[in-house]
Design a protein that fits this description.
Elements lengths: L33 E7 L8 E6 L5 E2 L4 E3 L7 E2 L5 E2 L4 E5 H4 L7 E6 L5 E7 L7 E4 L5 E7 L7 E2 L3 E2 L8 E2 L10 E7 L4 E7 L2 E9 L2 E4 L9 E4 L7 E7 L7 E9 L9 E6 L6 E3 L2 E4 L13 E8 H6 L3 E2 L4 E2 L11 E7 L4 E7 L6 E8 L7 E5 L4 E5 L8 E6 L6 E7 L10 E6 L9 E8 L8 E7 L5
Parallel strand pairs: 13-34, 19-23
Antiparallel strand pairs: 1-2, 1-10, 2-7, 3-6, 4-5, 4-8, 8-9, 10-11, 11-12, 14-37, 15-16, 16-17, 17-18, 17-19, 20-21, 21-22, 22-24, 25-28, 26-27, 28-29, 29-30, 31-32, 32-33, 33-34, 35-36, 36-37
């Protein structure tokens, strides 16, 4: 990691007795990878905090390092055995350093020898937090959301929707009702899969003229009820992906059991869609709750998508669990790819290898969606893009992410406003047709509205064919 600003490295003695800050961001000591990555100065939870990040390839011991604000008399020394893993974070809480962060103020980090490693000063509080954008490497800026202990959610300049501004309803009036929450496109079969969170149902949709209608074959006429592996319960089914299209499985991301609505249960469930039964019992559940930040039971998993191994290897995708490039051979029975799930509460995407033999898992990625909340994820196999969509709380914006060649991590590159022909409604799912379906330079996009505005849950639009980034 190189110099983060044009100023020279400073030692502790470079700051006068009054604690004046002579530079906004300190340069890094050569070979040192620790940075101040995010700062909360205005009433965080439970108080102010400073987040450190290790952008290097190995764990770094920061025992004896110390933090100051803009007052030299305020000093907090990190205790013994303070270590930050490669790509990891360490949050220093106000309860630890015992001095608040005001406005104007600063955060200054020194190593155990008293050499200034990094610093950031500000004249007023951020509306969210101040954080490095891009995460870990960029200049400090106001973030899109507070992401304590996680990759920063950085603001993007939103561009016009890259396609037609026209959006039309594409289902009959009151066909589904509320709570249709996500979509998965299977173009070779002309099928659009749709999942409902309450009641827990999966629908197989086909095209009839200008509308999507329920398939009537193999028991799909009224949709199929989803239950947990024990044959009971009602998964709050918010996200949907088809996974390997050559198989007979769909994967659902659920944030809770509706029969126990006050308890978070952030799970991925696999269902076999080859039978005729009108109830689908999960063949497997990966309960990821313990591996995630603690969130409210209504702000957990909202999105899921699947990216095949071959694509990830070709893009140079990094595996955070090993610190090296992603190697599928290191994971047994994992379904041929990585499952990426989105958490509504913090707009963060988590990538998991899911063991299909014993319900174990390995987290291989953690990154910001570029949104304050992520409600849908869609993988574009033609270009390797990952689309993250937010609902009406963010104005129905979308971000486009690609794997960064330098870090191997998905990074938000572009932000798009919704088409001007679509109102700001509660769209929680999105599906994008492949390049093979292009006509006149455009291909279909389908949104699903969880609130069934004006009686309609599905709307069709169009996006430009060809590369967007």
């Amino acid at each position: 990691m190189g110099v983060l600003s044009g100023c020279a490295t400073a030692a502790e003695s470079d700051f006068g007795e009054e604690g004046a800050i002579e530079s906004n961001t300190a340069a890094l000591v050569p070979g040192q990878e620790i940075v101040i990555n995010e700062v909360e100065s205005n009433g965080g939870s439970p108080g102010d905090w400073v987040e450190l990040m290790n952008g290097g390839a190995a764990t770094i011991d920061v025992s004896g390092w110390f933090l100051r604000d803009d007052d030299n008399s305020h000093k907090y020394t990190l205790p013994a055995n303070s270590k930050i893993p490669a790509g990891g974070y360490l949050v220093l809480e106000e309860a630890q350093f015992s001095f608040g962060l005001g406005a104007p103020d600063a955060a200054r980090l020194y190593n155990a020898s008293g050499t200034l490693i990094d610093s950031y000063s500000w004249s007023s509080h951020a509306s969210t937090t101040y954080g490095r954008c891009p995460n870990g490497t960029g200049a400090m800026a106001t973030t899109a959301a507070s992401t304590k202990g996680l990759a920063n959610t950085c603001k993007l300049t939103m561009e016009s929707w890259p396609g037609s501004s026209s959006v039309v309803t594409s289902d009959g009036s009151k066909v589904f009702g509320e709570n249709l929450s996500d979509l998965a496109y299977e173009p070779s079969q002309g099928v659009l899969w749709a999942v409902q969170n309450s009641p827990s149902k999966l629908f197989r949709l086909v095209r009839s003229g200008s509308q999507w209608v329920k398939s009537t074959t193999n028991g799909w006429g009224s949709g199929k009820t989803l239950v947990y592996t024990n044959g009971s319960g009602g998964p709050d089914s918010e996200g949907l992906t088809r996974g390997d299209l050559s198989g007979t499985s769909v994967y659902v991301a659920a944030e809770r059991n509706n029969n126990s609505s006050g308890t978070s249960r952030n799970s991925v469930l696999r269902y076999d869609i080859s039978g005729t039964s009108t109830t689908l019992t999960a063949a497997m559940e990966w309960n990821l709750t313990a591996n995630l930040p603690s969130v409210d039971s209504n702000s957990g998993f909202e999105a899921i998508t699947f990216v095949p191994d071959a694509a990830l290897v070709a893009m140079g995708f990094a595996d955070e669990s090993t610190g090296g490039l992603y190697n599928p051979a290191g994971y047994a029975a994992h379904g041929g790819g990585v499952f990426f799930v989105g958490l509504e509460a913090n707009g963060t995407v988590y990538g998991y290898v899911l063991n299909h033999s014993n319900s174990t898992y390995t987290r291989v990625a953690t990154f910001s969606s570029g949104q304050a909340a992520v409600m849908a994820l869609q993988y574009d196999a033609d270009f390797g893009y990952l689309y993250a969509h937010c609902d009406d709380t963010c104005g129905n914006t979308a971000t486009l992410l690609t794997v960064d060649a330098a870090t191997g991590k998905y990074t938000a590159r572009l932000g798009f406003n919704r088409p001007s022909g679509m109102s700001n409604i509660n769209n929680e799912g999105i599906a994008i047709a492949p390049e093979s379906a292009c006509s006149g330079g455009l291909k279909r996009v389908v949104w699903t509205d969880d609130s069934a505005t004006s009686g309609h849950s599905l709307r069709d639009g169009q996006i430009d064919c060809g590369p967007l980034y």
